[in-house]
Design a protein that fits this description.
By secondary structure, the chain is mainly α. One of its GO terms (biological process) is amino acid transport.
Length: 281
Amino acid sequence: MNLVALLLNALTLTAILMILALGLAIIFGLMNVINLSHGEFVTIGAYTLSVVQALGGSYWLALIVAPVVGGALGLVIERLLIRFLYKRPFAAIFATWGLSLVLKQLILLSFGPAPVQVTAPIVGSVTILGESYPGYRLLLIAIAAVLISGCVIGFKHLRLGLDIRAVIQNRPIAAAMGINTERVYAIAFALGVALAAFAGVLIAPLVVVIAQMGENLLARSFFVVILGGFGNIAGVAVGSSFVGGLETLLSYNLPVTLSQALVLLLAIIIIRFRPQGLVGA
């Protein structure tokens, strides 16, 4: 593998992890809820792509439908389950773990254990600095960059983004200022899982789409959030770059499973000596 491909592979993984971790960071930073079902919404996004394509729809349609489906499910789940667990973090862990098992079984019942085939919107390679590189991976990087930039702008300038930031910093004061905190919580949870579903569509053409595909991504996304520091986008960016870049570099010479284990081990060591994360909460 040449240097250009190595860097672009690192950027691809970093982009995927950043979208996933951003959703987790929003949910935990705002609600103090560790959502162990986050990976299943990645899977739901991937299967949404499969269903849309099976019905004759395009990848681009699935890129819109998947986050809508994820967001709608998020609103329902927040209203029926998560809303009662904001002040019970340990109960929330078990509840979202149970939700993860339920969603996984529903996916298995609906689609079976066999891998599902999906197709990328573009095929072939693009020549960069004299080296060929898969065109879809470049498209993924571009889409992720647009999405993340939009999230940053939204959090800084849109009313909803400002409300979310205000509630994260101090819920009682935000409520006293007239912000509907329950509405913000519901929308933020829906946004977090919608981002996971969106990431599922992006990653589906690159992996084997099965009911368990979100498990590995969930673990790495949590480490990204913890490593970067809770509650800020800069921390998510730093954590994603660290995990994505180092894992790609190690996997060049080591088995993928071993490289992932070494990255997570190093992340644990860093967190041990810097529990607030590389950027801080």
